[in-house]
Target: ABC transporter ATP-binding protein
Amino acid sequence: MSGSAVRTVALTKKYGGVPAVDDLTIEVPPGEVFGFLGPNGAGKSTTIRVLLGLAAPTSGRAEIFGIAAQDVAQAHTKLAYVPADVALWPRLTGRETLHLLASIGPGTDVAYRDELIERFDLDVTKRADTYSTGNRQKIALVAAFATRAPLLVLDEPTSGLDPLMEREFRRAVAEARERGQTIFLSSHLLAEVEAVCDRVGILRAGRLVETATVAGLRRLHRSEVTVAYTGAAPELAAVPGVDGVEPLGDGRLRFGLTGAPGPVLQQLARFDVTALNVREPSLEEIFLDYYGEPVRYDCGG
Ligand SMILES: Nc1ncnc2c1ncn2[C@@H]1O[C@H](COP(=O)(O)OP(=O)(O)OP(=O)(O)O)[C@@H](O)[C@H]1O
Model:
């Protein structure tokens, strides 16, 4: 038995001989909010399809709390899922849909569900075929967050939500984490991932290029430092970790810093520095570092 909520080991999924997911090894411990990031076509949805047992691995393994993902009857007693495109039964009302989803899921906290209906501002008396994309998404989110499933798998769950609802989503994630639920969140929305995730896995062309905490990612990447000085300008070009030293005039200069700040602080101490400002990279800048090109947002991000 694995102690992980989600575990893939050397997972590969090929379509027509071409890998959509390539040798992917991920472990998400119980209770973690794990962000799964990558541009279009990186393999996020394919990974989720394998985790849900909707696609079989070409090679390697995928497990939910130690249960093979292919053992759908067992694995699905442990999880609730929100797909990127929520399809609902058109003739059922929102309330009937929530009752149905609760009856087939791993158990629902009905009082919390009713609270979420209010918070997500849902009119559950309407039929599903009158719902907008965002409202369908809200129904699926309310159904998932109200279950006591130990794992919530969310595939780009907020692409149709407005900022107020995005805030409710973040609250609901925090409450799920407090209850000890694990969340596997695939997203394009870097601000969302930055706000709610403990750890992030970055996928490129089916391969995992990095797994780290958001703070850990920042430490690995380039910060922008501005110093103000009087007297001689600090000589920084040869200091390890420093690049792109740029005089700004009026006794200030700017440079990039990657890695530990010790060497540059020692060097700055030799000069008369009057102010120091360090701007850490955003997750978006880190993402660009990995991809070397602007990120494509396809869902209103
Ligand atoms: N059923 C399929 N048949 C053939 N190729 C597929 C199939 N599903 C996915 N692919 C291919 O696998 C790759 C990964 O796709 P996937 O949908 O997993 O990416 P993604 O990261 O979820 O992207 P997006 O954010 O656009 O949903 C893509 O090149 C895609 O064209």
Residues 294-301 have pLDDT under 50 and may be disordered. DSSP finds ten helices and 14 strands in the chain. The first strand starts at residue 6 and ends at 15.
